[in-house]
Design brief:
Strand order of the largest sheet: 6-7-8-3-9-10
Number of domains: 1
Shape: globular
Number of helices: 8
Helix content: 25-40%
Strand content: 25-35%
Structural class: alpha/beta
CATH superfamily: P-loop containing nucleotide triphosphate hydrolases
Bound molecules: adenosine-5'-diphosphate, magnesium ion
Radius of gyration: 18 Å
Distance between the termini: 36 Å
CATH topology: Rossmann fold
Number of strands: 10
């Protein structure tokens, strides 16, 4: 699904140049759940921006769904971003003047889906992330974890092949983080390919594989066996069997 070969990104600000990625290669298969880890400044967000077509590499190859991305035209980028990739951000990036329902409908509106169909799908997606009773609430009426679940519902609105999440639990407490990881794990079990960036090993261990970056290079590619089940952890917490 994703094949990255000798990917490089250099930022040139005029006064300084930063080699944020210095030649990275890996493949990700359909249905994988991958965590990207690394210290601050190691190039995680740069890599996610390239994978998500939010930025272009300086050199190297990126094949997404059998297509070489550098061969695409600008107009293809927007369509792929809207229909093939779902984004989740640390700060949710929901539109404050729209309800949860309307935030989830938005990408479907841009994809040209008519109102009745997108309303039905947005409602179904909010039910799936456990927020059916909050669908008419605005972001400032929801908790961080609830907003992130709205953002996940929005990310999967157009049924993307890939979900990219840059520090999706970075602004959340540990229980809420588990709730969000549980949603990602359910989506992954239903077939979604998911790539998340995280600082925290305990979050990364919910994925099946951890890619580790250091100073713009890939230094490790570890299988997680078995991944932690976030739903099970939440159940144990509720029963008081463990505490965190
Ligand atoms: N737009 C930019 N312009 C210049 N340098 C940048 C830009 N974005 C990131 N960098 C630099 O590239 C390096 C990697 O940054 P980033 O990918 O954001 O790392 P991470 O997400 O792992 O913290 C850092 O040295 C950072 O300062
Ligand atoms: Mg970052």
């Amino acid at each position: 699904m994703i094949a990255v070969n000798d990917l490089r990104k250099t930022y040139d600000t005029g006064t300084i140049t930063v080699e944020a990625l210095r030649g990275i290669s890996f493949n990700i298969d359909q249905g994988e759940f991958v965590a990207i880890m690394g210290a601050s400044g190691s190039g995680k967000s740069t890599l996610m921006n390239l994978l998500g077509l939010l930025d272009v590499p300086t050199a190297g190859s990126y094949i997404l769904n059998h297509k070489e991305v550098s061969a695409l035209e600008e107009k293809d980028y927007a369509r792929i971003r809207n229909q093939e990739i779902g984004f989740v951000f640390q700060t949710f990036n929901l539109l404050p003047h729209l309800t949860a329902l309307h935030n989830v409908e938005l990408p479907m509106m841009y994809a040209g889906i008519k109102l009745s169909a997108r309303r039905a799908r947005a409602t179904m997606l909010l039910e799936r992330v456990g927020l059916i009773d909050r669908m008419h609430h605005y972001p400032n009426e929801l908790s961080g974890g609830q907003n992130q679940r709205v953002a996940i519902a929005r990310a999967i609105a157009n049924n993307p092949a890939i979900i990219l999440a840059d520090e999706p639990t970075g602004a959340l407490d540990s229980i809420t983080s588990l709730e969000v990881m549980s949603v990602f794990q359910q989506l992954n079990r239903d077939g979604a390919t998911i790539i998340i960036v995280t600082h925290e090993e305990s979050i990364a261990r919910h994925a099946g594989r951890i890619l580790r970056l250091s100073d713009g290079l890939l230094i490790a590619d570890d299988k997680v066996e078995p991944p932690i089940d976030a739903g099970e952890t939440l159940n144990c917490l509720r029963k008081g069997a463990i505490s965190i």
